[in-house]
Amino acid sequence: MLLKLSLRNIFRHRLRSGMTLAAIALGVAGLILAGGFIQDIFVQLGEAVIRSQYGHAQVSRQGFMEKGTRNPTRYLIEKPEALADSIRQLEGVDDVMARINFAGVVNNGRRDYSIIGEGVEPAKEARLGSMVTVLAGRMLEDRDADGVMLGEGVAAAMGVAPGERINLLINTAEGALNTLDFEVIGVFRTFSKDFDAHAVRIPLAAAQDLLQSSGANILVVSLHKTEDTDAVMARLQPLLANAPLEARSWRKLSDFYDKTRELYARQFGILQLIILGMVLLSVSNTVNMSIFERVAEFGTVRALGDRQADVVRSVLTENLMLGALGAALGVALGLATAWIVSYVGIPMPPPPNANTGYLARIQVLPINVLTAAAIGVAATGLAALLPAWRVSRTPVVDALRQSV
Length: 404
Description:
The chain is an alpha+beta fold. It has 15 helices and 12 strands. The strands form 2 sheets. It has a 6-stranded mixed beta barrel, surrounded by 4 helices. A two-stranded antiparallel ribbon has the order 11-12. Helix 2 packs antiparallel against helix 11 and helix 11 packs parallel to helix 14. The radius of gyration is 31 Å and the shape is elongated. The protein starts with a helix and ends with a helix.
């Protein structure tokens, strides 16, 4: 009976109720769209980090991440093939590829340039690096025994293009100098502008020949689904427990991603509070008008035996139903708008430390939708709480006098 009466009261003043519903719906839809936009930033930024540089996880010798860049030959994994085969058997793992790091100088007969190089397995890296942009030439292939890919910054600094030849000069594991001649196969761009400024990639076999070593610094783990990262990391740890090895997920490897995620999460939290306040202010006025126009009505029910708590319960039920209707409309509006925006896409400029923009979409997560709807309902309930308490405290005689 209370629900039926509350529903009838909602539509007693259709214009006023319509304005309240519109305010709630727009607030809920705004939260869904804002949350989905920020979630899309997280997803696209994460995939860019994974698919252009780090993979989903990396296995290396303990201490390599902190000290290995200065002397990578001291942190080699001997016989990495056996370990890679073991990791490849874990549930959720798609592939495992070896990398060996080195630093040196590249020369084209006209100038020298300091570089940070990687020896990679070309075919596997090509499958993982779906977000590596080839600006000129092509990707490395397994048949390119003397091929090299240059980061965008290296190619620009050296003034070289695909088809030209360069020399790499590096120190071997024993400290001797070694040099090999390579043909430039392509020029690439990853997510990181700093990385592209000094990066070169050559086949793993060529890098091992340069370093006179058969080991690898890193085993890069690629997964079927990014969502399985934590589960695979839990399965990977026991495999490395008895060896001087460590595994790090892409989140641990990318400090930029974690800081960006924390920044946007805090901004969205503030946005939720702002929208909650806006809905509260928008709804409060109409709720106050509706309640205090019915003081005589509440006085009548009090005179017939209803208690103060019954009046408060009636007002709150009515407004919570109004909030639920507004939230439902907001969810429908938000989902429809999210689909349209995602279909069209939003061109975005390059993030900090990047050269490439991207097409943003709206990622709709059930938790975000439920949170937005809950905020809409809660705002309406909070807006009615004080007026309901005040009207319930009005003396019956004073309330009935309002109808005279």
